[in-house]
Amino acid sequence: MSAQPKIFVALFSGINVGGNRIVKMADLRSFFEELGFGDVASYVQSGNVVFRSAKGDAATLAKKLEAEFEKKWGFHSRIMVRDLGWFERLVAENPYPEVAGEPTKLHAYVLERPPTADEVARLAEKCTGPERFEIRGDVLYLHAPEGLGKSVFANLIPRTLKVPCTARNWRTVLALLEMAGRNGGA
Question: Which single residue of 111, 128, 143, 147 could bond 138 by disulfide (Cβ 3.0 to 4.6 Å)?
Fold first, then answer.
């Protein structure tokens, strides 16, 4: 008996940023299909792919995708893979629902692992501007009232926290949840 296919979302880091490491989304979708995944769909150019897989969990799929991606494109991209249930929790647990209507000012950082108390404390010391953040498990929620582009604190998050991560604005989070939910109901 084969496993029931599950819906996953792959979040790529470091592709199509500033004209570097260009990967066309049509090529990325084909890559997923060639690896045997179903119901493949991408969202915007920064590397977001919704797909269906009957085999593997999120961590196993991330390792496989990273290795195959590097073979095909010749450079490494960290890929965070999460399932539909994880995305549902991400949205449901938003600690800043009052700013969800301003999707360019609310961001979710997908963390490779939950940070330690010391790592969080180190980051909290750096949060001296108008931003505020909260960490719930392997997600850092950031409210940047002046937008991410003007946030000094946002640039400090990866190197201060020292937990591999990739960020998406709230509009992207909601779009990916909708796409994954649509595929999950198929």
Answer: 111
